[in-house]
Structures are given as structure tokens and as C-alpha cells.
Amino acid sequence: MNLPRSRAALAGPILALGMFAAGPVQAGASDRRDDGTQAAAILVTGHGLEDGPAVPAYDVATIGRGAITASPSGRIEDVLSAIAGFQQFRRTDSRAANPSAQGVTLRALGGNASSRALLLLDGVPVANPFFGYVPLSALSPDRLSTVRVTRGGGAGAFGAGAVSGTIELTSAGPDEIGALQAAALVDQRGETQLSATAAPRLGQGFVVASGQWDGGLWDRGQGFWTTPKDQRVAASARAAYESWSGSLRAVAPLTDTIEIQASGLAYHNARTLRFQGADSTSSGQQASLRLVGRGEWRFDVLGYVQAQDFSNVVISSSSFKKTLDQAKTPTLAVGGKAELRPPVGAAHVLRLGADLRLAEGHLVEVPYTAGAPSGFRRAGGDQSNLGLYAEDDWTLGAFVLTAGLRADRWTICGGFFRELNAAGAVSQDTTFPNRSGWNANARGGLVWHAGKALSLRAAAYTGMRVPTLNELYRPFVVFPVRTAANAALKPERLRGYEAGIDLHPAPGLSLSLTAFDNRLEDAIANVTIGTNLRERQNVDAIHARGIEASADLSLGQVSLNGSLAWTDSKVEASGAQAPLDGMRPAQVPRLATSATLAWAPRPGWRLAATLRHLGAQYEDDLQADTLPAATTLDAYALLPLAGPFSLVLRGENLADETVVTRNQAGSIDLGTPRTLWAGIKVGLR
After folding, report:
1. Of 99, 197, 256, 681, which is least surrounded by CB within 10 A?
2. Any bridge partners for residue 262, and if so which?
3. pLDDT in tens, 120-130
4. Cα–Cα distance measured from residue 202 to residue 248, given in angstroms and rounded to the nearest whole number
5. What is the pTM of this model?
6. Domains in the chain, CATH or no CATH each
């Protein structure tokens, strides 16, 4: 398939159709019926269908726009870190992590860099379908209205892959953004962040156009030193970065109960990590079209297309020469869903739906020996997933019961690995067998609203995740450790249950406590099989048990929000993997906490400080290298100046805590040091 042409062919009609639908709507077009009587006002939200009453049956956390836009770093991963149990594979943000390590998960079910949590932007899965990582730098917090995190296995739309939970990002509209919002900030290293979002209303619909750029004043952002001072050499380099993203959404009514939503997103990110020439890029474009009906028969129909790419250069930590050039990894995915909610009575919310995802991707890379090209490799394949699901919420007085079933038909086909030597002769040419299967999963829950101040809940669920093309076919190197792919990997399968209590003992005070037990069978991990050699393998299971707690207090102008996750997560392994039995999965902390104290003395003001603690975790599966615990303090201030202008001050890691993000036998990478930002924000209503 010619990827660029396919990308244009698919993306163009979707965006054109969305703009055509939004364009002709006139103000007041549906205010009166033909007989002259007044019609109901048309409500355009830009969102999907409203939640059912059973959402509280699961362990759910929500972040509002005020907290989202007050991130000290201005990055979505910083926002998500306020959720108990949220974890990236490495404890660093998208300025200084290799993009392929940006998998996101929940509940200590990590162990490799693929995402075990499903992340949706306005209903569209955004993870790279080849690698499973999330392009975090493309998801600007300024564009969002809410973030909702549901922990535990998923059975609804795109539920395949949501083995640890679902993270739903909802875009903001004119009511939250205003007519125009823009900001320009600079830090003490000369790095800048520029953003602008316009949200004009057009008739009874609206358009939101947004752009963001991060880098340096005259060049790429020089970044910070990830290498400790005593380990730097002449080839060492700062974590330089530059990224941009742009989005466009158009929302308009088709009738008084049906609205159309068209969205487009494009982004590019370039980074350097540890050594000069160790450059990586991630880029992509996606477009979607969505119809939402809120009549008697409610429905949500969505279609999308994504094209993404990734490149990476590996530099030897001994010779400081190029050892591998992962030149490109083009990936194309198309998919969609159709959900129907028939009118079955006020006591029920019934969902019937289907979703489909088709993906193809391959890598092109050149190995180097002594700084010279020594071969050529290509590998890749195709995947598909067809899901059918049904779920019902049943309200019985103070009780709400929910139950859902999901069946998935998955395929892995066209897998290959081809390698040429320096002379151009074929040294390996392997075609892997096609595979397919059906998986059935279910979830159910109960919430009892025992009173205005007390709710009790319990839930159980299963789930599955098919290995990514990256895990199946792409070996990789974090020098000097090489990790081999494994085309024989089996899908992961989850079994879990939980119970919790939600308290509202006083106005403005909410408390939540959840205990859970999740077991991920056939979990895919990077298993050590030799000196500086690992392979992706299925271990018997990762068994995670723990508690998650949150507290939200609002006293007029002051608010306090806190979360805590304590997890006992262990690998269950046998046979040749027996040395791993009882060990904690790589990169998984036992304890993670976060607390934010905010003060808004008057409209337009916000002063906030965030304290976070991340417990110790292990770099590798054998627990040979430790990443020490770290506690950081961040701050944010928004101070109105005059008219639409406000002063923005941000501080990251104010105590300059040493945060170790990688430890390979004493070779260390560090996270963000103390970083101070100042700038101007403009808001026009």
C-alpha cells in the first residue's frame, strides 16, 4: 500500500464532509416549525452520548478543565499523573522519553512499553497501532474539557486492549475556551511554548481551531541534561526537543436531535536523548467523522483514519557511533464504531454496538558496524479486530445493576522479517503464520446509593489485549541491551474484581476508597535470556492487588485534591522463567501519591501547588537495577493583569529532586530538573 496516497485519500473526504455539514447551518434555522409554533432549542455539545447511571459502579476518576489547564508543565502526562495508579513505562515526560516508551497503563499492570490502558480522544483511539505508545505531545491540555479515567477491564466500544482501564479525553468547546485563547511562555533555558485556540460559533454549531509549538527561541529547545555530570562525555547531549500540533473540530446540528462532528489532528515531534545524533521523531495525522443522535432511539456512529510514523537512531554508549538507524515505521489504521441505545424504559439504558479496527505497519531500519551501514531490515504485518458488545444499566430504586458482554474476532496476518547483509544478499527472509481467534469477555457491577452521603459498589470483569506488531516483529536496542521480538506471542487475558466506597460526608467533601485484585494472564514482558539480551515473552501472569484512594475538598476559594495508589504487583512465572516468579514487574512502583492545593481568591485567579511521590521501582525484570523513590513539588499561578491579559508562572520540580528514569548497570538517565516558566495568557470571551 502506498501510505501517503492512502492517507490523503481517506483523510480528505472526512474533513471535507465535516466542514460541509458545519457550513450551511444558519442561526435560528430550527427555532420554528412550519406551523409557526416554537420548536425546542437545539443543543449542540460536541460530545458523545450521555453516561448511564451505572458509571459509579466502577472505579472512576474525573479531572475538570480548571485542573487540566493549570498543569505546571503544560503536558497531558502531567495532568494524568494526578490519577491514582496512572503510569507511563518510564517516569519522564514527552520532552525526554523515546516516543516508543510512552505506553500508558493503570493498576501496576506494566512490564513493557505498550499501553494496557485504552486512551480515547472524543471517542477515537489514539495509541500508535504498531507500537502501542500514545503520542502524548500531540494532546494539548488547553484543548480539553474533561478527563475521565475508568479503571479495570473494558467491555464497551473499542474495549479490546483496555485491560487496565480506559482514559477518555473530551475536547472543549466555545463555552470553556471562549472566542480566543492564546499563551506564550519561556523558561530559564530559553525553551518556549506557544499556543492559540479559536472557538467561534457558526450558526447553531461551532468550530475549534488550535495550534501549539514547543521548542527554542531560535532553534530546537536545548532541553536539560539527562546524563549525570559525572557520566558525561564529549558525545553527551542535552534532551533537545521540538514539537508542534494542530487540530480542527467542526460541530453542527443536522436536525433538532442529531449533530455531526468532524475532527482533524496533525502533529510532529523531534527529540534527542543522551548522545549527539541519538534523534527520534514521531508524527501523525488523523481525521474522524461522528454522528450523535439524542432522539428516542439514541445512537453514536464514528469513523476515523490515522497515519503515523516513527524513527530512531541508536548511538553506542562505548564507541559513540551510530549502531542502528530505524529510518521509518509507517503505520496506517482505519476504524469505527456504531452504537445504538433503543428505548427500553426509564429503568434501563441498553447499549448495542460494534467496532472495527484495521491496522498495517512495517519498519525500515539500517544496522551499522563501526559507523558504516552493514545491512538492511524490513519487518511488519497487519492486524484487525472486530468487536460486538451489549451492555445494560438497570435502576432498581437505590440500586443500579450493570452487565455487559463483548466478543472480539482478531487476526494477525502478513507478518514478515527480511534482512540483507552488507553485500545486499538475503541473510534472513521469514514469513510468519497467520493467526486468528475469538475472545469473549464480560463485566458487571452493582452500586447501592445507601444515602445522600454514601454509595457502595462492587464490580468484576475480564478483558484481552492482542500483542502489537512491535512486540511481534520488531527487535530493538537500548544500547547495549538488545530485545528480540517474538512472533509467537499470545493475547493477554485479564480477570479482575474490585469493591469500593464513596463518601460525601459534608458539602464540598468527597472521599473514595477502592480495593482491587487483577490478574493479567499470559502477560507480555521483556524477559532476560542472556547477557545484554532480552526477548518479549508471555509470562504466566502479572497479579496486582492494592488500594486506590482519593479525596476532594472544596472550601469556597480553596480546594484540595489528593490521590494514592498502593499496589502489590508480582510476576507469576514457571519453567524457564521461574527466576522471575514473585518479582515485581519492571518499571512498576509500589506506591504513588499526589496532592494539589489550589486557591482562587477571585475570578480569573488561580494559585496551586502539587506534591507528588513515586516509590522505588526496578529497571529490569530481574530486579538488578533500582530507580530510587522521588518526591517532586510543582506550582502554577495565573494572575490577571489588565483586560484579557494574565500573567502565567509555572514551576516544575521546584526542589530540584534527582529523578532517575533509567538505570542500566549504573548508566543513568535523569528526569526534569527545576524548571521555571513565565509568560502571558490572553483570553477573549
Report:
1. 256
2. 250, 289
3. 999 999 999 89
4. 14
5. 0.92
6. 3-684 (2.40.170.20)
